[in-house]
Amino acid sequence: MKFLIDECLHTSLVAVANDNGHDGFHVNWLGLSGEKDWDLMPRIVAEDYTFVTNNARDFRKLYSRQDVHAGLIIIVPQVVPALQRELFELILQEIAGGDELLNEVLEISIEDDEAVLTRYSLPTT
């Protein structure tokens, strides 16, 4: 898979993606930092990125308007980079073996000190 990491998440998530056999890119490294969310969407869709963010509210809306997309990953809590890496690693374990996220969202949150993964279709069918 090819992941684009949002600027609200640490750049070290790129290494997590790469270390797990994926292609990882960060918004900041592509000259896209400061871009409005809706301005990122055409590039995300055109280049078939699975987008990784913690901006759930805005990107759920944007993704609900897409007919086809390569998936959205939402790391719900705003946490320190080390915990961001751990949560992203759990997500990558969940999709190991080529499990695509075509038109799906995979969210990870923390409840009672446990990571909780939630997967759903978007746009809803």
Walk me through what this model shows.
With 125 residues, the chain is an alpha/beta fold. The protein has a single domain, classed as 3-Layer(aba) Sandwich (Rossmann fold). The protein has helices at 13-19, 37-46, 56-64, 81-94, and strands spanning 2-5, 23-26, 50-53, 72-75, 104-111, 114-121. A six-stranded mixed beta sheet has the order 2-1-3-4-5-6, sandwiched between helices. α1 links the parallel β1 and β2 (23-26).
Keywords:
single chain, 125 residues, alpha/beta, Rossmann fold, six-stranded mixed sheet, 4 helices, 6 strands, 26% strand, globular
Shape: globular
Which structural class do you get from the secondary structure elements?
A: alpha/beta
Helix content: 25-40%
- End-to-end separation in angstroms reads 23 Å
Q: Estimate the strand proportion.
A: 25-35%
Number of E-state strands: 6
Under CATH, the topology can be stated as: Rossmann fold
Strand arrangement within the widest β-sheet reads 2-1-3-4-5-6
Secondary-structure element pattern, one letter each: EHEHEHEHEE
In CATH's first tier, which class applies?
Answer: Alpha Beta
From the alpha-carbon coordinates, what is the Rg to the nearest angstrom? 13 Å
